[in-house]
Design brief:
Layout lengths: L3 H14 L7 H5 L6 H17 L2 H24 L5 H15 L1 H4 L7 H15 L3
Helix pairs in contact: 3-4
Length: 128
């Protein structure tokens, strides 16, 4: 089973692939826009793997989607915008914020109430 050291090593691998001196020429040419077709392709392949119910294929395609997240995060880091851990932190905060009925155990909510709360929170986040 993978652990945080594996994640850190994976981030280092991507950093090396993008190293201006010894990195991969193709990886170095990429930017957020040029990667869009690959994100679309990998997302579609994941959908197909899920529909086929092939867990080995799902695992492989999830890795390819994760590669896209890591690739975009590395580009953003190089541009001094954000890094992978900012993405993780943002996602964690969003999950907690959008699921108060899970993380605030003071009251039990029905499935319908939970859905209504989630939709209301998401609308508020997006500006109405």
């Amino acid at each position: 089973m993978a652990n945080i050291e594996d994640v850190s090593h994976l981030l280092e691998v991507m950093k090396e692939l993008r190293d201006p001196v010894k990195g991969c020429a193709w990886d170095l040419e990429q930017d957020h826009v040029s990667l869009i077709p690959y994100l679309e392709e990998e997302s579609q392949e994941l959908i197909e793997a899920i529909e086929s119910k092939n867990s080995d294929n799902i695992k492989e395609e999830l890795g390819d989607v994760l590669l896209q997240v890591i690739f975009h995060s590395q580009i953003a880091l190089e541009n001094k915008e954000f890094d992978f851990f900012d993405v993780v932190k943002n996602l964690k905060q969003k999950l907690i914020r959008r699921h108060p009925y899970v993380f605030d155990k003071s009251k039990k909510h029905t499935k319908e109430e939970q859905t209504a709360m989630w939709e209301k929170i998401k609308r508020a986040e997006k500006g109405g």
